[in-house]
Fold these 2 entries.
Entry 1:
Amino acid sequence: IANARLEFSSGCTATLTASRVHQGKVRKLRVFEPDSYYSIDYRNQEVKVFPLNGRQTDIKTIKIKKEEPLKLELQNFFKCTKDGKIRKVSGNEGLRALKLAYRVLNEADT
């Protein structure tokens, strides 16, 4: 199991966890607020909102359009390249994310 804690300039923090112990593939993001938390399941493309009041009946599922993420990224890249528009994620932002991912991987190996 590998954990990485990221601290952003805004004061927000994120904890990333990776494990090869789990039986299945899990790709989730959880966002916590004072009165609820959001569970975003990238693999199943599902979003659930859990109230922190302890009542299981108040759980809400947000409907989202299920699409293939890599296909959407490539479509956006090609459209922006063709039309000369700015991409959703700049090359610099992509490079920063890639460097951070490699840094986390290198730390996990040590």
Note: Residues 45 and 67 are 8 Å apart (CA to CA).
Entry 2:
Amino acid sequence: MARKIHSRIRIKGQLKVMRSLHVGGIHGDVSNVDLSLAVNGQGQVYIPGTSLAGAIRSYMTQVYDDHKSVQTGPTKMDGVWGYQEKDRGHASFIVVEDAVVSLPSGEAAQPRPMQPRDMEIRDGVGINRHSGTAAENFKFNRAIIPRNATLPLNLTLEVKDEDQQAELEAQLNNTLAALSQGLIRLGGAKSRGLGCIQLEPDCEGEVQLLSSRDGLLKLLQQKANDPNEQALPLWPGIPKEVANAPAQLKLTIEWEPVGPVMVKSEQSGVAVDILPLMSRFDAEHLGFVLPGSSIKGTLRSQAERILRTVLQQPLPADKKFADQVQQLPLACHLFGTAAQSEQSTDKRDNPDDPKLGASALFIEDCFSQQSYDSKKFAALTTADKPEIRSALDAVDAENIQQAYHVAIDRWTGGAADQFLYTAIEPFNITWEPIEIGLRLDRLLKKEQEPAIALLLLLLRDFAHQRIPLGYGVNRGYGTVKLRQATIQLQGLDKWPEHLQPLNGVAITQADLSELGELRQTLSTAWGDWIVKHQVHQEAA
């Protein structure tokens, strides 16, 4: 049976992929990819409306539902997005359409639909904490949508009653503001560099009144090509500020490489054995990329070393990888842990505490500021040995060189048989800042200050050049140095008052002296947490 609708709000805009994006699906033509992208019946990469709706619903539920009271029935957002509860429920009042992904085709050409051949492949691997090598059964790869891709946002909100109009319209517009500022992430691996999208400014909205004769006539008589014909009342537009934004610490690290820094591509060239990982910038250019997953894995390993040191908790050699990374609760709450059953993960002492498991730390992909002609760089990978020098010259990059590496036979002292290999090494690359976000609402209140202290200890080690990035860090690659790190607090009113002075702090010294009195406050909280957990460990 048709339901009564007072009005309809229609939103039409465009979302831009700011970093990279993965929304999974099944595509049989890509047999060598473990996690492929969603492809529609026309062979175009697309984002299902269910994925977009799920991300938007999750944000609205977090912001507008009352999480402090015990819910015995449908929540406020269930009433908007629909729910099913035994013999009760209804369909959603918000409809989000599928979105075909488009890629830029050049300065003058129109964007074209993304095809499966345009997918980029990223490797993922777990590192055994004891051996330092790849963990068994934790190697996979995924297809991604490159940065600067676009996808349309077509959303319709149906308002049931007139008295809901103002509230729902304000909630929707505030959610669109969150989309425009990149606060709503989409797809998989959102805490590991993927999923950052933004709503473009030229978003259009329309309010259609359906409960009155005049409103229906206005809608039916409206001419699509006549700008003077508009539905009434007018849509107010997206607000500039986001209300009720979640409390988040944003750490922006400006850095520079000391030597070659890169992540190894899974593909090899004809004459070159090791190629750096590249990502598409636009229709004609590529650039180097350090995936957020790589940076996050490096930081997590260092965080676990710190925790095992201060807690005097050694790593048993017989533990499997999945058990190794779950032995330290603070690291799991900060960096996330694998999904388990509901009974095993929901161990909250207080119902107001967040459910643990999802990562509180978000680390973006980091791209080089230099870009290179994609066709010339492709020729470099396919060139054979006699052509490699001319291919390098064609790329016209002073900061890229071919390097030779060889293993030495321990008996003869000469080159080991079949252990000579070559690599394309980038030098003196200018990189974008590393961007790290810490969601305060994903941490237990008693762990918020220790988690911030641990993050700052990682920053200290980064400044001391103890955290190399990327590939070959034990063989001369990956050394980096800090220029400046800046802390910004979002949702400032939701932060504890004594932590609000963190906002705007710029750090250039490894001793974190710029923190002032906050350094002592966080140091005390860190020390108290260590004492408490050392006691628990001894009691166990």
Note: Residues 223-227, 341-346 have pLDDT under 50 and may be disordered.
